[in-house]
Amino acid sequence: xxxxxxxxxxxxxxxxxxxxxxxxxxxxxxxxxxxxxxxxxxxxxxxxxxxxxxxxxxxxxxxxxxxxxxxxxxxxxxxxxxxxxxxxxxxxxxxxxxxxxxxxxxxxxxxxxxxxxxxxxxxxxxxxxxxxxxxxxxxxxxxxxxxxxxxxxxxxxxxxxxxxxxxxxxxxxxxxxxxxxxxxx
Length: 185
What we know:
With 185 residues, the chain is mainly beta. 11% of the residues lie in helices and 46% in strands.
């Protein structure tokens, strides 16, 4: 069950079980560091996953899941789309209201016509978490998101998945698809 605002999240368990390790952007989101020396008890936290169907320029499709984010395209040129279940993407807090168990996707797209200078300014402002409204930047929240790209793009995920030649994606949230464990206080 996705977390409700102000509600307790997770349950205390003696040992780590199934699920994913809290590393990288997920660990930043949860406010934890290295947990390798922790012996227990653990707080087991349910996590959403993003199911992605990527269509490639050669006509093939690829289906995979990610618990963090996916990026299609490059930051400084061409089309760019980021779909996320976490607030942090590649170490930057892009989606300030995102939560890894809120049952929704957060997304941002930048069209290929955005000039380089404006893109640099945009990414600089994400470091300071200041809002940058721009007519070539679209954001949204939902349970499902579809995108088509004018030219094939590279896709990358928080788990290190890479895919070239992507011309369209369909992403949907799968609530409580997995879990992670962090040290219990």
